[in-house]
Design a protein that fits this description.
The protein starts with 21 loop residues before the first helix and ends with a helix. Strands 30, 32, 33, 35, 36 and 37 form a six-stranded mixed β-sheet that branches. The longest helix has 24 residues. The protein folds into two domains: 325 residues, YVTN repeat-like/Quinoprotein amine dehydrogenase (Methylamine Dehydrogenase, Chain H, 7 Propeller), CATH 2.130.10; 85 residues, Immunoglobulin-like, CATH 2.60.40. Strand 17 and strand 18 form a beta hairpin. It contains two helices and 37 strands. Helix content is 8%, strand content 41%. The protein is mostly beta strands.
């Protein structure tokens, strides 16, 4: 079987042909040409942006073809000129970590910050690990053709796809014991859940001739047990967990092999981690969502768009719900290698990327879109309490709050809600100012509160007594009868005496 491997190892959507015979390579190229002719790729123009962030792009003035963040968000390890290098995000403390004549590539920093894994063509295996200062370099013999490794959250293992002549395997290697383990056959693009207990991966679509990196999403335990199919219908790729582990984001390709001429649509989707509630986020001719596209707090998603009309990549950010689609302006990004490999800092909203083979980053500052409070009008009495609550969307958390009463800040009123207890009657105006982590401030509409005076002695309420006119004649008759009876009794008593 010949594999049509659309592999994101290196930059862009590089198509890595199978390392086989010349005839195999020619057959693969022929298949690609046939697919291109058979399916009308939709001519998608650049997706419309709700905002364009002209945040300053900071260049580190160093060539890079691959990079990875340190867990403290202050340093980056990168590949350039066949070696591994380290540099601070502010451009200081540059150090070359490898000097071997062989090619060293694709460095990945461990979550605990103690090790760096990388590819190497030197003998002893393709995976190597070393300390962050370049010392203690050792090999992990995992065989030929492994893909980009993914560190486990506890930094004890590397998760990767291994490919032999006929199949793909999801495997791990223990960086201490160097023992490998096959977790799944026929699996690619594995990713850990944030707690390290689960692994999500793609089971690729294949027929008698070729297999692709498109397929259905599967979930299994970290030891390879309890495999569960989450999606049905193939043509999904690049799944990743959200930072809280509750959702999985992925790309989806919409086309039908049985309907030549139908448009090919690339979309970004998400679903719950159990496969339920699959929902659409955005349509885009986009790169794969490499690594984890979520920001450190899970609020934003970064991706690059690659329309077939221009073949120029642009950098985009949206909220986790697919809202506020925003293009980040990158100066001089006017060729096919304009923006590559966007990766979020693990501690803040810095978004690093490669542009024209240079390492750069921006601090994504999404403005606050709205601040609202409730109620906006009310009437209360002096001494009666009224609680205001707030809703904030957009911006970069954490937020700080300040409530205002008649234009002045209220001392101590610095929470998302505030309780107002007036002591004097009158008209009061209440509003809230919210400031996000990047000092962007937004103000709510003002609420109008009428406070009424309580009269001295409190409120009095008239007591109305219901009286009903009753006829008096029956009572007079009764009194007369009783009087007559009483008189008769007295007379009889006197006669006896």
């Amino acid at each position: 079987m010949l594999f049509l491997q659309l592999n994101y190892v290196g930059l862009g959507e590089r198509i890595e042909l199978m390392r086989k015979t010349v005839s195999g390579i020619m057959l693969t190229l022929l298949m690609l040409s046939m697919l291109t002719l058979a399916f009308n790729i939709r001519q998608v123009e650049a997706i419309e942006s709700e905002d364009i962030i002209y945040a300053p792009v900071r260049y580190l003035n160093i060539t890079a073809y691959w990079f990875s963040w340190a867990p403290d968000g202050e340093k980056i390890v990168l590949h350039a000129c066949d070696d591994i290098h380290r540099i601070n995000i502010d451009g200081t403390n540059y150090k070359r970590l490898t000097t071997d004549p062989s090619t060293d590539d694709v460095p990945e920093w461990s979550p605990n910050g103690k090790k760096i894994a990388f590819f190497s063509s030197r003998s002893g295996g393709l995976y190597w690990i070393m300390n962050p200062d370049g010392s203690d370099q050792s090999s992990l013999d995992v065989g030929n053709y492994p893909y980009v490794p993914v560190w486990s959250p506890d930094s004890s293992k590397l998760l990767f796809t291994f490919q032999n002549e006929t199949d793909f395997y999801v495997m791990t290697v223990d960086v201490r014991t160097k023992q490998t383990k096959v977790l799944a056959t026929d699996g690619i693009e594995p990713k850990w859940s944030p707690d390290g207990s689960k692994i999500v991966y793609i089971k690729p679509f294949r027929n008698e001739t070729f297999a692709t990196l498109f397929g259905d999403i599967w979930l299994m335990n970290a030891d390879g047990s309890s495999m569960v199919q989450l999606t049905f219908g193939c043509l999904r790729y690049s799944p990743s967990f959200s930072p809280d582990g509750k959702t999985i984001i992925y790309n989806k390709v919409i086309f039908d092999f049985g309907k030549p001429g139908e448009p090919v649509v690339f979309e970004i989707w998400t679903m719950n981690s159990d496969g339920s509630n699959e929902r659409y986020l955005a349509t885009s001719i986009s790169d794969q969502l490499l690594g984890n596209p979520y920001s450190y707090d899970g609020e934003y998603v970064a991706f690059t768009q690659y329309p077939y009309t221009t073949y120029i990549r642009s950098l985009w950010v949206m909220t986790k719900e697919g809202k506020h689609l925003t293009q980040i302006n990158v100066p001089n990004s006017h060729d096919s290698n304009a923006v590559e490999l966007p990766r979020w800092s693990p501690v803040d909203n810095k978004l690093a990327f490669i542009t024209n083979c240079n390492l750069a980053y921006v601090e994504v500052e999404t403005p606050l879109t709205s601040v609202s409070i409730t109620p906006l009008s009310a009437t209360v009495n002096v001494g009666q309490s009224l609680t205001f609550t707030s809703t904030v969307t957009g911006g970069i958390p954490p937020y700080s709050y300040q409530w205002y009463l008649n234009g002045g800040p209220v001392s101590g009123a610095t929470s998302a809600s505030w309780t107002f207890t007036p002591t004097i009657s009158g008209i009061y105006y209440v509003y809230l100012k919210v400031t996000d982590a990047k000092a962007n401030t937004s103000q709510s509409d003002a609420a109008r509160i009428t406070v009424a005076t309580v009269p001295i002695g409190g409120y009095s309420f008239p007591i109305q007594v219901h009286t009903k006119a009753e006829p008096i004649t029956p009572y007079i008759a009764l009194i007369a009868i009783l009087t007559a009876i009483f008189t008769t009794i007295r007379r009889k008593a006197k006669r006896k005496h």
